[in-house]
Amino acid sequence: MKKSFLIFALLAALLIPSQIVMLKSYNSLDGLIHTERIIQFDKALKERQFPVRSAPTLIDSIGYPLFVVNYQLPYYFAETIMFPFSNATLAYKLTMSITFILSAIFAFLLFREVASLPAAYVGIVLFTYLPYRFGNLYQRGAFGESVSLMFVPLIIFAYHRIQKGSKYSIPLLAFSIFGLITSHTIVFLIFAPLIVLYIPFVLRPNLQQLKSIIFGLTLGLTLSSFQILPSLFEKKYMMFNERLLYLYKDFYLNIYQLLRIPHSNINYGTYYQIGIVSTLIILTTIIILFKKFDLKLFFFLAFAVLSIFLTTNYSDSLWTHLPFIKYVLYPYRFLDLTIFTTAFLAIILVEKTKFKTILAISLILLTIYTNRHFFTIAPWFSIQPSPNLTTQNENDTIWSNEVTFADRPLVSSIPPSNIYLADQKPFKVSAKIINVQRAKIVIRKMYFPGWILKVNGLNRPITQENGLISTSLEPGNWQIEAYFTESKLRMFANLLTLASFAILFILFIKPKLLSKF
Questions:
Q1: Quick one: DSSP state of residue 410?
Q2: Could you give the CA distance from residue 451 to residue 234 in angstroms, rounded to a whole number?
Q3: Contact predicate 103/91, CB 8 Å
């Protein structure tokens, strides 16, 4: 017990400096955007929308589909703080801070599983103290990206627990995959090759262990169905591809900046670098591999070098010709992979030396010292949230245009009719309409699959008028009702997620059940 206390006391001591800025008032590029999204997410839940798909009050409650393809788990984490305290800034900061610390704890569990205690400490310091982690946390305010990184080491940790026959290892793997995907699907895409190739090149499980891993991975994917399926099949109804898939061209990193190589007009204080210690570790690994080949070293070195390469314009041909990579959007996101792989390289190098403790202390001190200025440097400015809380209007529907967002009555008629509003809720509108001639009725709600229109209690096909819900009525008295619910695809996705959670729960309470099959 005393030894465990000392281990975690040292772990806490190593992590506390990383959170100093969080206690202050600071600006981050996306922080204000995410706090406003947290508010919208909270309002949607209070309107009993679950899972959350639409922002209730954006643009005068137009029903903007902000969360249909956006990651969701970080906002559910934030809601646990938002619900009791009603403070979006506090919810944002605590979620970022707590998940950052959890990422270090989960990394420690993984590194301790595969290496000695000194090496494990080195691993967590590199995983948490390299510049880009601080960039995500403080400068960019990359909410989902920062949260998602806590699940990466947990996935690999679950692999090793499966190999050792731990009874809760399969549910752990499934939940970790679910957590990574629903925290940031793009980060999952970045790490997917490593997650898969780690199995044959590093883990090398037997057939039964491999079956368990495949089952856990598959269950993790189906758990995430409520987010994956709409992202895959309903993104086509948005302007996402048209407005985002070419951003990468403006966000390549300079190789001199990445490696802190002296050169004119290079900012060495930027977060967009791999760090001095990572550079030393990579160079040392290359030298060792020239002397004697080691598969594990080569595996992590290959991913480290590839990740660095993909952040630079030298990889432009890959970004141009590989369609899936464009969804990463920003090349510098591959630094997440660099951080994880160099942390692993460090623990392998420490394990190879006879002087583990001395080398570990040296690397820990050097890492903290060379990144000390990131404890205090506050970013330059905050991006002011746009009316729809996006950066490129990427969640605008394909039917929308400038007229869509113009001020107009909630329910209007051409030619004019007598309109008596009843319900005026974010996701439901009802009204009585009396018209003496054929009229076009427009409801100021942005159309997206899932909106249902009823006229006198009967379903009526929806037509879009400048991206808004519209229908035509013959002369008469009419009761119209429009409400937002799940599309058939999202219903199926939700059911698949629910069924998967039922399986996960059964495996948790009866972990030996799987061995019977």
A1: S
A2: 14
A3: no
pLDDT at 134: 82
pTM exceeds cut of 0.90: yes
* Structural tokens at position 200: 């044959």
| Chain Cα centroid distance, residue 273 | 21
Sequence-distant (6+) residues with CB within 8 A of 241 are 235
Q: Which of 224, 142, 212 is closest to 179 using CA atoms?
A: 224
One-letter amino acid identity for 161?
Answer: R
Is the pLDDT assigned to residue 274 strictly greater than 70?
yes
- 3-state SS, 301-339, equals HHHHHHHHHHCCHHHHHHHHHCCHHHHHCCHHHHHHHHH
Dig out the tokens for 398 from the structure: 């394909």
Please, what sign has the CA dihedral across residues 203, 206, 207, 208? negative
DSSP string, 376-392: TPPPS--PPPPTTS-SS
In the chain, where are the structural domains located? 402-485
* Residue environment code for 336-367, b if the CB has 16+ CB neighbours within 10 A, otherwise e: bbbbbbbbbbbbbbbbeeeebeebbeebbeeb
Neighbour-count burial for 199-237, b at 16+ CB within 10 Å, e otherwise: beebbebeeebbebbebbbebbbbbbbbbbbbbeebbeb
Q: Quote the CA–CA distance of 20 and 27 in Å, as a whole number.
A: 14
The residue type at 350? V
The alpha carbons of the chain give a radius of gyration, in whole angstroms, of: 26
pLDDT digits (tens, 9 = 90+) for 469-490: 999 999 999 999 999 999 999 9
What proportions of the chain, in percent to the nearest 5, are helix, strand and coil? 60, 10, 25
Cα–Cα distance, 183 to 41 (Å, whole number): 15
Residue 288 CB coordination number (10 Å) = 17
Instruction: Tell me the CATH number for domain 402-485.
Output: 2.60.40
Q: Who's near 92: CB < 8 A, 6+ residues apart?
A: 31, 34, 35, 38, 78, 143
CA distances from 345 to 248, 338, 451 (A): 28, 10, 51
